[in-house]
Amino acid sequence: QRGHQNFIETQGPIIACALVGGLKHPYTCAIASLLLSIGGILYQVRYFYPTPLVSGTKQPDPRSFAPSMAT
């Protein structure tokens, strides 16, 4: 849900900037928007399917860090 919320929050300003910038530089804005879309898809895939940092090890449980951040 966090990754989806991040996408929803930034979608409006990005579309507005792409539309305004596209008036003067349409190809540049089209390529930048395409790269942003591809990056968003890759971000979502990596967020939902993380891989271990080192082969054969487990990812740390994010809940295990919660007590240390409570101070």
Query: Helix and strand succession?
Result: HH
| Radius of gyration (Å) | 18 Å
Percent helix:
55-70%
Low-confidence stretches: none
What is the residue-averaged pLDDT? 76
* Number of E-state strands: 0
Distance between the termini: 26 Å
**Beta content:** under 5%
Tally of contiguous helical segments: 2
Strand count, sense and barrel status of the largest sheet are: none
Secondary structure category: mainly alpha
Approximate shape: elongated
Care to give the gist of this entry?
This protein is an all-alpha fold.
Structural notes for this entry:
The protein is mostly helical. The protein is built from 2 helices and no strands. α1 (2-22) packs antiparallel against α2. The longest helix has 23 residues, at 26-48. The mean pLDDT is 76.
Element layout with pairings:
Blueprint: H1 2-22, H2 26-48
Helix pairs in contact: 1-2
Primary descriptors:
mainly alpha; 71 residues; elongated; single chain
